């Protein structure tokens, strides 16, 4: 999974019926601590979730996340999958991702900004200026 690609994943709804959903995963070295995922809800509408890159990295190894975003790696009949769950006050959704694709995306983020080098790419002064500019 490369940055800014569109993927079709398997979506599980509340009745355990499967339906396709498009998602866009992106990572920017300008925001090295976060990953953005967008889900298409209609032809012109996307819902955006932003979460810590460390959460995805941890979730590829073991269940991770205690808040609104969770990952659980597992195997099903030889398929390496990653359960991706999001939850808000408006509902919850779960997707099964191909874990190899998720690992490829994670590797791409690490190639762009290695763990521990995030502060070299993050402009804290610009963030503070944006927050205090009222």
UniProtKB/TrEMBL annotation:
Record has Isomerase as a keyword: no
Q: Which GO terms describe its biological process?
A: division septum assembly; sporulation resulting in formation of a cellular spore
Q: Cite the InterPro entries for this sequence.
A: SsgB, SsgB_sf
Q: According to its UniProt record, where is this protein located?
A: Cell septum
Keyword tags: Cell cycle, Cell division, Septation, Sporulation
The GO cellular component terms are: cell septum
What's the short name of a Pfam family annotated to this entry? SsgA
What is the similarity comment for this entry?
Belongs to the SsgA family.
What protein is this chain from?
Sporulation and cell division SsgA family protein
Its source organism is Haloechinothrix halophila YIM 93223
């Amino acid at each position: 999974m490369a940055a800014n690609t569109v993927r079709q994943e398997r979506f599980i709804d509340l009745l355990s019926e499967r339906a396709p959903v498009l998602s866009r995963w992106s990572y920017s070295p300008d925001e090295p601590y976060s990953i953005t995922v967008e889900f298409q809800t209609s032809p012109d509408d996307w819902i955006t979730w932003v979460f810590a890159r460390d959460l995805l990295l941890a979730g590829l190894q073991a269940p991770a996340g205690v808040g609104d975003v969770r990952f659980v790696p597992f195997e099903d009949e030889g398929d390496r999958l990653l359960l991706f769950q999001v939850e808000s006050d408006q509902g919850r959704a779960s997707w099964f991702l191909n874990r190899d694709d998720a690992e490829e995306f994670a590797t791409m983020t690490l190639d762009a900004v290695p763990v521990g080098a995030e502060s070299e790419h993050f402009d804290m002064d610009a963030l503070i200026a944006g927050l205090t500019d009222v």
